[in-house]
Amino acid sequence: MTKNYRILQDASPLFFEGNRIGILVSHGFTGTTQSMKPLGEAYAEKGYTVCVPRLKGHGTHYLDMEATTYADWVKSIEEGYHWLKERCDTIFVTGLSMGGTLTLYMAETYPDIKGIIPINAAVDIPMMADVAAQSEVRFLDAIGSDIKKPNVKELAYEKTPTKSIKQIVQLMKVVKEDLSKVTCPALIFVSKEDHVVPPNNSQLIYEHISSKEKELIELKNSFHVATLDNDQHIIIENTLQFINSIIEK
């Protein structure tokens, strides 16, 4: 019998009702909506309709996460997409880390998506694949809160279930194989120094998506959780410009 864990403070899904342009925002593996809240609020302030789903098994307890699959995480992000579809004519998707992986998945699966903004997106992490293949340990130490800015902490699990690592490895494989299906405009952010996702993932994404309009922006002063780090304003400003440039066409 699975226990019902309470949602942690600051880990609930976020919804902002605005105009007919929607932005779907995804947090990452073991993380919560807290890591994406500043972006969601900034986009809502500009009048956009914003949805930041809580991925299933996240924002509660790592035992809860252990019982979920990558299909559950995909379903969580798809529910957010459908919430926006009811309210919006145009949808953009952005996400951090595995949220970036899910962003790519959405663009591969839903061709009506107008543009994507992956941030330190994961499609190939050999270290995780090795752990998934070999580990007999049930839980590993946390991977969250890789932030350069002092006194800023990401709300993330203190343990990572090995079962969950196996799931993200499968998700990355599925998404990587279908990168050529991404045809919408893409603005890709990559931290120069990232201790969770190797920065070459973003270059790989840039090279393999089929988008005619694509740009890769390097974040020089942030680690993995760039949405809470020193370059947060660069992400927000460039994303708003990117969205405006597409809407105005």
Automatic annotation (TrEMBL):
- Pfam families xref list: Hydrolase_4
Binding-site positions, substrate: 29, 98
Q: Which Gene3D superfamilies match?
A: alpha/beta hydrolase (3.40.50.1820)
Tell me where in this chain the Serine aminopeptidase S33 domain is found: 23-229
Site Important for substrate specificity — annotated at: 143
Please give one Gene Ontology molecular function term for this protein: carboxylic ester hydrolase activity
Q: Tell me where the transmembrane regions lie.
A: none
Q: Which UniProt keywords apply?
A: Hydrolase
Q: Where in the sequence is the active site?
A: 97 (nucleophile), 194 (charge relay system), 224 (charge relay system)
Could you tell me which InterPro entries the record lists for this protein? Answer: AB_hydrolase_fold, Esterase_lipase, Hydrolase_4, MAG_DAG_Lipase
**Organism name:** Heyndrickxia oleronia
* Name of the protein in question: Alpha/beta hydrolase
